[in-house]
């Protein structure tokens, strides 16, 4: 079987943006993790895909709420990416955000955000792929935070 760490190194050549995917538990609790395994899937209906590690502490909350928000990070939000890429602690402490219409946190300063209802979940090895139908979205814009070869990057001149 092909080695997972080697696959991470190989796929590190595929430059991506960085997002924080959030959800909630219906009892006031909010959860989120840094993720770049996301993509648009369909325009009609409008669908997005997020891939979440079974080992993530936030993993069960996506099944419970059946909603998620995708927050696309800006160049000035690397510290948030680092915080949400570690398990534990109060990740949202001091992080300005509001709750979307579906209840998931939308972070201030995100370049774009989408709120989605989960319409399908597919087992995929050590991850689960959640397909979400977009209920609301907007794109305030700005310079992106990028991830390439295992490191954060910024656009030249950005
Ligand atoms: C740039 C970057 C991209 C990541 N992409 C994903 C991803 O797409 N899916 C995922 O499950 N974890 C991803 N991770 C790892 C999670 O952020 C990490 O496991 C986090 O600790 C999970 O938080 P939790 O345990 O509080 O849920 C990524 C980490 C980084 C730094």
In short:
This protein is mainly β and 158 residues long.
Word description of this protein:
This protein is mainly beta and 158 residues long. Helix content is 14%, strand content 45%. It has 3 helices and 12 strands; from the N terminus they run αβββββαβαββββββ. The protein has a 7-stranded antiparallel β-sheet, sandwiched between helices. A 3-stranded antiparallel β-sheet has the order 1-11-12, with no helix packed on it. Strand 2 and strand 3 form a beta hairpin. It binds flavin mononucleotide (FMN). The site of flavin mononucleotide has 16 residues, from strand 3 and strand 5.
Key features?
single chain, about 160 residues, mainly beta, seven-stranded antiparallel beta sheet, three-stranded antiparallel beta sheet, globular, binds flavin mononucleotide
Strand content: 35-45%
Rg, Å, rounded: 15 Å
Report, as a whole number of angstroms, the end-to-end distance: 40 Å
Low-pLDDT regions: none
- What small molecules does this complex bind? flavin mononucleotide
Q: How many distinct helices?
A: 3
Listing every helix as H and every strand as E from the N terminus to the C terminus, the arrangement reads HEEEEEHEHEEEEEE
Draw up the topology in text.
Elements: H1 4-11, E1 16-17, E2 19-24, E3 30-35, E4 38-42, E5 47-53, H2 59-65, E6 67-72, H3 78-84, E7 97-99, E8 105-107, E9 112-124, E10 127-138, E11 145-148, E12 151-154
Antiparallel strand pairs: 1-11, 2-3, 2-6, 4-5, 5-10, 6-9, 7-8, 9-10, 11-12
This protein binds flavin mononucleotide.
Flavin mononucleotide binds at residues 18, 33-37, 51-53, 56-58, 85-87, 147.
């Amino acid at each position: 079987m092909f080695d997972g760490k080697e696959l991470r190194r190989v796929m590190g050549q595929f430059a991506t943006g960085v997002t924080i995917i959030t959800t909630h538990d219906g009892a006031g609790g909010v959860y989120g993790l840094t993720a770049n395994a996301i993509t648009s899937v369909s325009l009609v209906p409008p669908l997005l895909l997020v891939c979440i590690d079974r080992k993530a502490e936030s993993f069960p909350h996506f099944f419970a709420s059946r909603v998620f928000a995708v927050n696309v990070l800006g160049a000035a939000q690397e510290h948030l990416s680092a915080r949400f890429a570690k398990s534990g602690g109060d990740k949202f402490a001091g992080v300005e955000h509001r709750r979307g219409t579906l209840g998931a946190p939308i972070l201030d300063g995100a370049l774009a955000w989408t709120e989605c209802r989960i319409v399908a979940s597919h087992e995929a090895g050590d991850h689960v792929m959640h397909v979400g139908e977009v209920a609301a979205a907007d794109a305030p814009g700005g310079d992106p935070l990028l991830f390439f070869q295992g490191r954060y990057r910024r656009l030249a001149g950005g």
